[in-house]
Design goal:
Order of helices and strands: EHEHEHEHEHEHHHE
Helix content: 40-55%
Radius of gyration: 18 Å
Largest sheet: 7 strands, parallel
Structural class: alpha/beta
Shape: globular
Bound molecules: NADP nicotinamide-adenine-dinucleotide phosphate
Strand order of the largest sheet: 3-2-1-4-5-6-7
CATH topology of the largest domain: Rossmann fold
CATH architecture of the largest domain: 3-Layer(aba) Sandwich
Strand content: 5-15%
Number of strands: 7
CATH class of the largest domain: Alpha Beta
Length: 262
């Protein structure tokens, strides 16, 4: 199986921790040079230092807020001018929880900017390099909620469905250039994001965090939370030459939690 990413450059967003950082590790293990993006410079520096370099590759990091679309465009255009990237892991923090019908309109705007406009900005900046290489891998980290909306994540459910539709559209537009666009849908994955959701749901329901966690796990056939590395393994595979004919799909990595057939 063709898994070697030597000579490839991957831009991994939301890479200072959690699923993004785990993805950066897996891509570096396969030989890619990785540029990590997130807001916290200190966390990025530590995260970059932890990446494997056994193929002699160079890893970099850049602190940027995906909510600041213009700054993001300038930063990423600058990064790829020197080092064209063929792999984009489009990942960031998730919107806060809450009901859809009580959410402020501003919350939808913010989530749309962070999840979709940032992705569009990144894709447009990286496309020339992908086309020049006749090799592009765009992997969007979304959520299993695009198959089955999750109660209590009203803004997230709404905006992530838009990201899935955007990605499917792109996959048809770019395939002839050797570029694939796929989505990975994490289920309950043990990261700071999940810890935050557990605390928020415990606070709003009067239950303990352990009770909230047990209720979540009752819906997961595997009866455990996923590890960030388990989600990252699928993201990394979709980035390889071996995955060239996988395009326009959304793969749940959720321990079997999603019950729908498609
Ligand atoms: N964990 C789960 O159970 C789960 C389940 C379903 C879906 N997901 C989704 O998968 C994605 C990754 O989840 P995760 O658990 O790895 O999250 P996480 O641990 O909270 O990590 C989020 C990453 O995104 C960065 N980030 C957040 N806001 C940003 C912004 N405005 N601009 C740039 N970078 C930003 C964070 O770094 P800085 O704070 O330094 O910017 C961090 O590196 C999220 O969209 C999440 O909602 C997660």
């Amino acid at each position: 199986m063709l898994l070697d990413l030597s000579g490839r450059h991957a831009l991994v967003c939301g890479a200072s921790q959690g699923i993004g950082h785990a993805s950066a590790i897996e891509l570096a293990e396969l030989g890619a040079s990785v540029t990590l993006l997130a807001r916290s410079a200190d966390a990025l520096k530590t995260a970059a230092e932890a990446l494997p370099r056994k193929h002699g590759q160079h890893h970099r990091w850049f602190a940027v807020d995906m909510l600041q679309t213009d700054k993001l465009r300038i930063a990423v255009t600058d990064i790829v001018a020197d080092h064209p990237a063929q792999i984009l892991i489009n990942n960031t923090g998730g919107p806060p929880g809450g009901l859809a019908h009580t959410a402020e309109t501003a919350a939808f705007e913010t989530a749309f900017r962070q999840q979709l406009l940032a992705g569009q900005t990144l894709v447009q900046a990286l496309l020339p390099g992908m086309r020049a290489a006749s090799y592009g891998r765009i992997v969007n980290v979304i959520s299993a909620s695009v198959k089955e909306p999750i109660a209590g994540l009203g803004v997230s459910n709404t905006v992530r469905a838009a990201v899935a539709a955007w990605a499917k559209t792109l996959s048809g537009e770019l395939a002839a250039d050797g570029i694939t666009v796929n989505n990975v849908l994490p289920g309950y994955t043990r990261t700071a994001r999940l810890d935050g959701l557990l605390a928020a749901q415990a606070g709003s329901s009067g239950r303990t965090e352990d009770e909230v966690a047990q209720a979540m796990l009752a819906t997961v056939p595997a009866r455990r939370f996923g590890k960030a590395s388990e989600v990252a393994a699928v993201i990394a595979f979709l980035s390889t030459p071996a995955a060239a004919y996988v395009n326009g799909v959304s793969i749940a990595v959720d321990g079997g939690r999603t019950r729908s057939l498609s």
